[in-house]
Design brief:
This protein has about 210 residues and is mainly alpha-helical. The protein is built from ten helices and no strands. Helix 2 crosses helix 3, helix 6 runs antiparallel to helix 10 and helix 8 packs antiparallel against helix 9.
Length: about 210
């Protein structure tokens, strides 16, 4: 996975238009910062590295790092997939059950990640498990994804994005995905991650019975 740098956004489950030069440059900078961060973490450990070291390794200024990532934890947690997922969900059949749409988009996106950036997925998951600050920040950053999903699903269902049922649905799906990711990381990243995601979504679909 993260072995090969890209200069354009990842291919999603739906074809996306090629971004403009400005967006490609921004993506290249974000990726340089992330790659430098992972290299420094491997050499020194997460807690030992500073934003100044990351900036120097990525050949940018500290202010540039902060312009792209609000915190050091965000460098590990942020990827380019939310906007692609939003477009993919909107492109699903209008009469498709929301959970089925989510299942398709999430598993296809995850399959793309594992095919193109497997090492980065594994590094990120290890850090989620090992670094309390990253795990705590994960819950905060998921709120942005939750707002995006609530907006899309509300549009599809004719509800408000602040509708309680929409918020509970989104929270349940994202919570399930978070726990699957942590479980996989805590158990040595063994097993089929996509199968585990499907199992978690099956649990939701069956009505949370045990």
């Amino acid at each position: 996975m993260a072995a090969t740098p890209r200069t354009s956004p990842p291919t999603s489950v739906e074809a996306q238009p090629r971004p403009g030069l400005r967006e490609r440059k921004k993506l290249k900078t974000r990726m340089a910062i992330r790659r430098s961060t992972y290299r420094l973490i491997a050499e020194q450990g997460y807690d030992a590295i500073t934003i100044e070291q990351i900036a120097e390794a990525a050949e940018v200024s500290p202010s540039t790092v902060f312009r792209y990532f609000a915190t050091k934890e965000d460098i590990v947690l942020t990827d380019e997939y939310d906007l692609l997922m939003e477009a993919a969900i909107r492109n699903r059949p209008a009469d498709e059950p929301p959970l089925q749409s989510m299942r398709f988009v999430v598993t296809e996106t995850l399959a793309t990640l594992l095919a193109t950036e497997e090492e980065e997925v594994r590094r990120r998951t290890r850090l989620m498990v090992e670094v309390p600050a990253i795990r705590a920040r994960l819950s905060e950053t998921m709120s942005d994804t939750a707002k995006m999903l609530a907006r899309v699903l509300a549009d599809r269902s004719g509800r408000s994005a602040d509708d309680l049922a929409v918020r509970v649905f989104v929270a349940a799906v994202l919570g399930a995905l978070r726990e699957v990711t942590l479980y996989w990381g805590e158990h040595g990243q063994e097993g089929d991650l996509i199968a585990m995601v499907n199992q978690a979504l099956d649990t939701l679909e069956s009505g949370l019975t045990l």
